User: What shape does this take?
Amino acid sequence: METIRQVDEMQLRALALRDTGKRIAFVPTMGYLHEGHLSLVRAARQYADVVVLSIFVNPTQFGVGEDFESYPRNLERDSAMAADAGVDIIFAPETADMYPRNYATTVRVDGITETLCGESRPGHFDGVTTVVSKLFGIVQPHAALFGMKDFQQLAVVRRMTLDLNIPVEIVGMPIVREADGLAMSSRNKYLSSEMRQQALALSDSIHNAIQAAQQGETDVATIMDMVKSRIKGGQDARIDYVEICHDSTLKPITRIDEHSVLLVAVFFGSTRLIDNHYLLAPMD
Ligand code: PAF
Assistant: This one.
């Protein structure tokens, strides 16, 4: 496995690979890898000859007072995990190389960025779409794989790719969970053991909601009440949002159908966790 730190070098390498007819699959990450990222890497192999994984804690997608400074970083640990999972190239640029002094461009998707995480984290998705477009330009992938835990991010990246005619196949992959159901996230590391226990309310309440929907409950308000009261049981839990939305518009709905996705964001202390699931699909 090779590690490339320079933007120019990565782009030249990607263009040279394409010139020799190689297909590139790309897994963008902010590092502190876990099994969720590694499942994307393994799946990426099916889409290409060369798998590139980026590690870049992107400052432009963090708001004031968020965890940019404290976000866990450990390139040595990540490199060992990436090599084991079959990554060919790690691209780990420096911030000054990604956003040099006269940098002046933002990529912005309207509409679906204004609800859910976009409402609680203003500007977050502008940072995501900007860095993802830059990474696509640098890594030149044929396919890019994203986890469905960031359901809204996946929808926003799909919208951007379509709107800007970017020739990259966007692949969404199922959430990977711990044995007890907690969705894997680099931020789980922040949780005390007490809070981690309380955080199981996310996957538990989603599980209960799926059961109710599958047993014929179609009223969104009833299911949302059930989810909220389960989550509020935890003394440190503070709900950011609980919404049931249409999977592509992300607009709230009132009746459950096969497009209905339950999305939750909850603070445990200062740690904000998200989770989601389709209501009429078996829990992953
Ligand atoms: O999902 C993430 O880790 C980030 O939002 C991404 C896509 C790597 C962009 O910084």
Q: What stands out?
A: Residues 193-214 form the longest helix (22 residues). The mean pLDDT is 97. The domain at 2-173 is CATH 3.40.50.620 (Rossmann fold).
